[in-house]
Write a structure and sequence with these properties.
Elements: H1 2-7, H2 11-17, H3 27-30, E1 38-39, E2 41-43, E3 46-48, H4 52-64, H5 81-92, E4 95-96, H6 104-128, H7 131-136, H8 144-155, H9 158-172, H10 185-191, H11 202-210, H12 219-234, H13 240-248, H14 265-272, H15 275-311
Parallel strand pairs: 1-4
Antiparallel strand pairs: 2-3
Helix pairs in contact: 4-6, 11-12
Length: 327
Amino acid sequence: MQDTQRNEISPCESEKAKKVRGKNRCKNVQGLKVGKTLSVTFYHNRVVGKNSTSFVKHLGILVRDRNKCPLRVHSWADIEEYKLDHMWKAVTDKFDSADINCQRDNVLKHMRRLWNNWRGSLHLIVKSKSLRDVLKDVPEGVDKSDWEWLVKEHFLSEKFKERSMRNSVNKSKLIMPHCTGNKPIREIIYELGGNDGNPPDMATIFFETHKKDDKLVKPETNEKYAEIQELIQSEPSLINIEVVERCFGPQCKSNVVGFRGETTAKELKGGNSSKATLLDELNATRKENLSLKRLLDNLENTVAQLASIYSCQPSSTPSSTEPDTCI
């Protein structure tokens, strides 16, 4: 009887024993000596490979640090430039790469995404509790006055509620969500040949990001995979974004099917082919030609008007009928 009681675990004890995600500490970055940095590699404007996990963790710590990144703003665009410079300095103090100075804007975009995701997790607290409990249960690492401002002035504002509702609707419309877990799709592409300059085609990317136990489970996913394969075989010159748009329709700026929100349609079009550039140049040439045509028409009209004026003026030459005078 005593053994039975000893082996029994109460629900409360079971909850305590349950493993949960701990605080993001990133010990290998914190343990760096002064002047030492970790080397990272950028691929399509994001860090991949060795030290990429530490890099992302460090960015996550920075956007949650109220001494570096303010919480009392409605959007990332409201953060002052000198504070962005402060955060960027905190990145370059710990990490380095051959092209680190060219990647500032891309790293800040990544930080903005992490910041928005974190704020989204804070918003879930507001949605799940009464206002009284929300204000009382201040999240760890957040100042109480900042939390009250964020809840009352931001999360409960009509503008935020409208945007949140719109984003929820858009999220429900996502086509065939990926199955990669926390591993970035960019990292998968890098490992499958991107590191050697030979990234995989769209069929391989789709399979690797939607497989489960090395196979596609859902019938609709299998059908779409077959459609992508057939299109690539019939038109091998198509780039990945063209394959996506032929199979899934036009893609919005911030979310491309098969690439999640990590890569935009603009990046895919500009990074893998000159087609977008050529289209821009063609439009610019058409505008220039139209401008030149208008200029030529105006010049022709001016010449015609001058010719008409001169043709109406009397001749100033002496008359041939006037008699000569002899001396």
